[in-house]
Amino acid sequence: MDIELTDDEHLRALAALEAIVGNNDDALAILAGGAGERPPPALLAAYGQHTLHRALIATFGIDATMDYDETGRLVAEINSDPTARMVFVLTDALHNQAALAGDDPATAKLIAGSILLAIHAFTSADNQDALTLLRALRNEVLRSG
Known about the structure:
Elements: H1 7-21, H2 25-30, H3 40-59, H4 68-80, H5 82-101, H6 105-123, H7 127-144
Helix pairs in contact: 1-3, 1-6, 1-7, 3-5, 3-6, 5-6
């Protein structure tokens, strides 16, 4: 099940990923959040889950125009696919790592690294390509909001 993220959380997570790719600890510290906001490790774990689940959905060809039966068949296919199950294990591990980390920036960097490696596995994007992808995702959030 996907964790809901607000537009602000999407933008904050994307900014944190960009700061980590750019090795900008000052920017990451600014994004640490305040009262009522998820700490960076938890935010990045939630964002990673959201993004990787979207990648799975796209990989298996699920879209909003499909009928219930076709969607159900493809979801069953996802659930039985070993690669998809590994994505589920990865996102669960990221959440477990974040739960133990509090607001530790070093753990946020490790989680971000795992997310970027997973994005690379799906898209073959290196870190510079990942930055381009992150900017496109940020623009998508800004257009929808």
